[in-house]
Amino acid sequence: MTLRESDEIELVSRAATEPEAFGELYNRHVTRIYNYIFYRTGDYQDAEDLTARVFQRALRHVGNYQNQGVPYSAWLYRIAHNLVANWHRDRRRRPVVPLEDHVPDTAAITHPEALAMAEEQNQMLLQVVRKLPPERQQLLILKFVERLPNAEIGQIMGRTEGAIKSLYHRTLNSLRDQIKTMEDEVNGRSS
Amino acid sequence: MGGIRQRLNRKRIEKLLAESLVPVEPSPIFVSELRGRLVTIKGDQVFSPWILILILASLVIFIASALGFAIRLLLGLLGLIGIMERRRDQSKALGA
């Protein structure tokens, strides 16, 4: 167990009675949880709302948290995962809001046409990613946004490192197939 | 979509994902307001030990008051029975 992990366990045990300890846990994880929810929902407002609910729920149940060898962040991701699933269930009856406000880092591209193409490409890819099953989306967010190693992703998702590697491989194949299908649809419409 | 139309091998998809899935920062106002709310709730939360002590103390006082009231009621009732019995005895004595 690393120093940071033991420090975190100590913080969690104190958080049940000490507001400042919970505040410290919040500071450490709020951005990660926000990022996860943002990429799962594609909306800033909903990401803020759901992030608030994750931490309110975590606060209510922090006294029940039992250390079973998985990081505290895994517990938070589990809460976020469940809330996002409920959010998607509620939204099924309503139209999907696209990721129109999302502006990825395209500072290196200066030509307007190239910038527009890169933006369109990003939008399309995010659209395809959001059509993947929830666990595959979670894997991609943890790997690319959080840049976590497979072992840590495995701890968070409750799988072995090997299972994560295999899931990642299948996810990339599935992405490739979906992108091709989408391109074929676009080409069919334009011809 | 010109970029994606190129041959989609594993490295290319990974590169595209790395370009699209970039970390975003939540608004600092949102972060600080939520922290403030959470810490305040924590200070006033229902499961605070002091709240529990207060609830227990209120419960003890309520039970003691209820018991006191019940004892007074019982004693009053016994007193009433006593008065009625005495009056009956007195009327019997007068009749005899």
* CATH second-level architecture of the largest domain in chain A: Orthogonal Bundle
- Could you tell me the radius of gyration of chain A in angstroms? 19 Å
The count of domains of chain B is 1
Distance between the termini of chain A: 59 Å
Order of helices and strands of chain A: HHHHHHHH
Shape of chain A: elongated
Number of domains of chain A: 2
Strand segment count of chain A: 0
Total number of beta strands of chain B? 0
Strand content of chain A: under 5%
Report helical residue fraction of chain A.
Answer: over 70%
CATH superfamily of the largest domain in chain A: RNA polymerase sigma factor, region 2, helix turn helix motif
Largest sheet report of chain A:
none
User: Element order, helices and strands of chain B?
Assistant: HHH
The biggest sheet of chain B amounts to:
none
Cα-based radius of gyration of chain B, to the nearest Å = 40 Å
Notes on the protein architecture:
- The complex is a heterodimer of chains A (about 190) and B (about 100).
- Helix content of chain A is about 75%, strand content about 0%.
- Chain A is mainly α and about 190 residues long.
- The longest helix of chain A is centred in the last third of the chain and has 30 residues.
- The N and C termini of chain A lie far apart (about 60 Å).
- Chain B has one domain.
- Chain B contains three helices and no strands.
- Chain B is about 80% helix and about 0% strand.
- Chain B is rod-shaped.
- The chains are: A mainly alpha (about 190), B mainly alpha (about 100).
